[in-house]
Write a structure and sequence with these properties.
It is a single chain. It contains twelve helices and eight strands. By secondary structure, it is an alpha/beta fold. The protein has one domain. It has a six-stranded parallel β-sheet with strand order 4-3-8-7-5-6, with helices on both faces. It has a two-stranded antiparallel ribbon with strand order 1-2. Helix 1 packs across helix 5, helix 2 packs across helix 3 and helix 2 packs across helix 12. The longest helix has 14 residues. The chain starts with a strand and ends with a helix. Its EC number is 2.4.1.187. Catalyzes the conversion of GlcNAc-PP-undecaprenol into ManNAc-GlcNAc-PP-undecaprenol, the first committed lipid intermediate in the de novo synthesis of teichoic acid.
């Protein structure tokens, strides 16, 4: 099996390398429909249990990767194996780096105007092979949103990345799926903030120890309410299924 079901969410068991290769293959295609990728953490898993709209979006996704050590540990508890976290930021960087050998066009939606513009400028400067097809910040009314979708439909970029938070990005992509004439689309969380230098990523040692969530909490104490979902997720996993 290529997936494992964790509380109703079918997570991919592919490694980061295999996932990037799959997306690069999709970007190289010429006749395939939009590939909607979701990078999901325990917060999205728990939200999908009570939100019918999000649950439908998750079930319709083409691939869901484990963006959180909690998902990896949950798979282990169920007696299965997810090799590693496949995070949105790392995946995005790998795809941008790969553009040197496999060029593609990119449309960027989300974050505030300053962050969006700065991140796009850095991507253009740093990553050879990436062509920016268009961009727009994450603050728009209904009329502006319609114009963004029309622009994406007209320009047909290879990839669309959306930074509207989770599950805001997932809902936005799903809402406009029929008109997003791209090959790959996915939400990138706070990746634009990191690329723009607005937010620092956890040091590598924190990442390797799988406590990046703790680093973010220490840097942004206001996140504590969001992270209350982690013990709820763990308790639900522990009580929902016994290990083999």
């Amino acid at each position: 099996m290529d997936t494992i079901n964790i509380l109703g969410v079918p997570f991919s068991k592919r490694t980061m390398d295999d996932t990037v290769k799959l997306l690069q293959k999709q970007l190289a295609s010429t006749d395939k429909p939009l590939f909607h990728l979701i990078t999901a953490n325990p917060e999205i898993v728990m939200a999908a249990r009570t939100n019918a709209e999000l649950r439908a979006i998750v079930q319709a996704a083409d691939l869901i990767t484990p963006d959180g050590i909690g998902v990896v540990l949950a798979a282990r508890w169920q007696g299965d194996h997810v090799p590693e976290r496949v995070t949105g930021y790392d995946m995005l960087v790998r795809l941008l780096e790969g553009a040197k050998n496999q060029p593609f066009s990119l449309y960027v939606v989300g974050a505030d105007e300053e962050t969006n513009a700065k991140a796009v400028g850095i991507i253009q400067e740093r990553y050879q092979g990436v062509t920016i097809a268009g961009r727009h910040n994450g603050f728009f009314n209904a009329e502006q949103e319609a114009a963004i979708v029309a622009d994406i439909e007209q320009k047909r970029p290879d990839m669309v990345i959306v930074a509207l938070g989770a599950p805001g990005a997932e809902k936005w992509i799903y809402k406009h799926k029929s008109r997003i004439k791209a090959k790959v689309a996915f939400g990138v969380g706070g990746s634009l903030d990191v690329i723009a230098g607005k937010v620092k990523r956890a040091p590598v040692i924190w990442q390797k120890l799988n406590v990046e969530w703790l680093y973010r909490l220490l840097k942004q104490p206001s996140r504590w309410r969001r992270q209350l979902v982690l013990p709820k997720f763990a308790l639900t996993i522990l009580t929902s299924r016994k290990p083999r």
